[in-house]
């Protein structure tokens, strides 16, 4: 990264401090750790170990002397998987291009402009599910187990692609006139590479960040889940267990919700604040499809029957989480778009924008995070108690949202100054009522 010369900061792109994720050391660690964890989850949770943590001595690093054995490294590569992965990305771009969709404006960017986005992620999902359903109806569950069989090759494809794309985006961000993320213009290339340097890279009207945030990874996650369910059905005489049905249903519903409410993403931190760097690229393209599907993969070779008591209980938990998540996100998005049908109380800040102080946002600073956490827990709970590994997701997600809350709080403190203190006095709890 040292080959790039950093141009002096301008008024529009002020120099930032490398202060998040524990600075340069933390972002360097994240850049290596995130891909490593995706692989590690495969090696500690697979059918040979029955989905339970295996003894350390059978892990590749010990058993195959992985770090020094080139043939082990080559076993991570799968040319067919790489080509299919590229075809999947191309299909998503083609769908964005061809399928009809309204164009909507995002929030105002600090150069005074507003970006326009094409809204057709939901129709892309429907088209894809139509094709997949047709395939399974014609060919049976065995016709859609390919993702399960090529897991590690697909992980490698997504990680390599994420690195390449992030490197290209980083280099391109040095061109004249690019608008940088306020947090991604530090002195450190390593830090900027992770956090994201350019705010909204695009090719003509094709906005890269929102496209990758919603489509190949999220829709890919649903396909991965369906493939895991097919694998279980093949092993299970053509049927799937209640736990697999719940996991696939819940996670598909989560993706349906995100894509159906596509415009809501334009007020999120990822789109408004963060640059498009390795953090979002690897998160969207590798982490989401291959770690969020951990429960379904675990269940593929480890069927769990929840029975008539746990099934409705877990379903109810998911429903409560979804209600909090959707109602609070819709309340804020609507309010930010100028709607306030329930006449919620708000405070007007010195900066001019308003903060809700009643309704969901008068209850907690991040009610949407609470709902999201409850849902994630219900996905993990659906795998039963045989192994702790499927609970990795709730553990990681809790850390992610606590950290995200801290980042957002710092941002809001900068944005709103004294008004943020007034708001937090009125709404003291951040995510968990009466606890935090
Ligand atoms: P939020 O949707 O919580 O947005 C935070 C912003 O909302 C603040 O910066 C502020 O921006 C505005 N805001 C804060 N308080 C108020 C208020 N009282 N009234 C009005 N506006 C307020 O954060 P995220 O973008 O982090 O999350 C969006 C969703 O995405 C969440 O549901 C989260 O759970 C989910 N998510 C899911 C992930 C996953 O991997 N599954 C990963 C990350 C997020 P401003 O005032 O400038 O409008």
Walk me through this protein's architecture.
The model has no long low-confidence stretch (mean pLDDT 91). This protein folds into 2 domains: 286 residues, no CATH class; 130 residues, no CATH class. The chain has 436 residues and is mainly α. The two termini are 40 Å apart. The protein contains 19 helices and 6 strands. Helix 10 packs parallel to helix 14. The longest helix has 30 residues. The protein is globular and about 65 Å long. The site of NADPH dihydro-nicotinamide-adenine-dinucleotide phosphate has 19 residues, from helix 15, strand 6, helix 17 and helix 18.
Question: How many individual helices?
Answer: 19
Return the average pLDDT rounded to an integer: 91
Give me the Rg, rounded: 22 Å
Question: Termini, distance in Å?
Answer: 40 Å
Characterize the overall form. globular
Identify the bound ligands. Answer: NADPH dihydro-nicotinamide-adenine-dinucleotide phosphate
Compute the number of strand runs.
6
Helix content: 55-70%
Largest sheet: 2 strands, antiparallel
Pick out the low-confidence regions: none
Strand arrangement in the largest pleated sheet: 1-2
Strand content: 5-15%
Question: What letter string, H or E per element, gives the SSE order?
Answer: HHHHEEHHHHEEHHHHHHHEEHHHH
Number of domains: 2
> What's the multimeric state?
single chain
> What structural category characterises the helix and strand content?
mainly alpha
